[in-house]
Design a protein that fits this description.
This protein is an alpha+beta fold. The chain contains nine helices and 13 strands.
Amino acid sequence: MAGLQQDHLIRPFADADYAVMVELWNLLNPDWPRTMENYKLEATLEPRFRRTRFVAEAEGRPLGFLDFGTNPGAYHPQKFGFELFVHPDRHGQGIGKALYQKLLDELRPLNPLSLRVPVRENQTRAVRFFQDRGYEETKRDWVSVLEVAKINLEPFAGLDISPIRIHTFAELSAADPKADEKLHELFSDIRVDTPRSEPATPISLEFFRANVLAEGPEFDPGAFFIALDGERWVGMSCLYSITDTKGLDHWFTGTRRAYRGRKIALALKLRTVQYAQAGGFETIRTDNDSLNAPMLAINEKLGFARGPAQISLRKLLRGE
């Protein structure tokens, strides 16, 4: 173990660190809470995707975390993403530098092409830290929150998307043994057009089942809404609950290319709001690429309030 200063030790991550990591993340990002389930699910990834984590510790107390690996949805064996965050009481004391150096040391044998890190725009110290090290912004996502109690659905009462109909994944999977495969195919088609930091790569059905349709307290097949044209699955909008809160995370909304511009996405999102209202949830959180004008317009129409954006910063280490 080594640290930048004598009282800063960098050690491998242990199971006992999950709770502290979640607590620190939520302290830094109160509008974007995570849970232990979010992190533990990543431990089930295929070996080539598995995350590697280290902890910065002082006097036996974890004060910073480094989390890095390849992106399962945009996989390249030499392109790495990472997160690095430090307790606000210990900023400017060398912990971030020590963790970043650990990242470089760990990745050097893998000869990486690029490094990418997400940073909230209001965390100006972190933004400057990476810009000083040659990182440049390549993508910006608006993080928005809807206060469920404040939304008035009456203006949308006349919305008609017929002959398209909407069902929950719970309803569809109860009647169709191939529902998992159909949802995977639908998602695989739509996600190609979703703005991304790196080009999308295929996600296997096995990966989709294990990481999207994962059994646990956050997944409810009744919170996955599917648009159908006859028997064809043409759109989707999906929520996960945020464990131990009254909040929901809006994971994904989209329609097949031929069905866009018909207010199907709006109708799907309205169903997610109705689900939130019926379940007594207080907020829905979502994030959308700053260039995704159609989805941002839907969010604005529904009353989502924008918070600090998440910026994707990239450093090219060598040519492709």
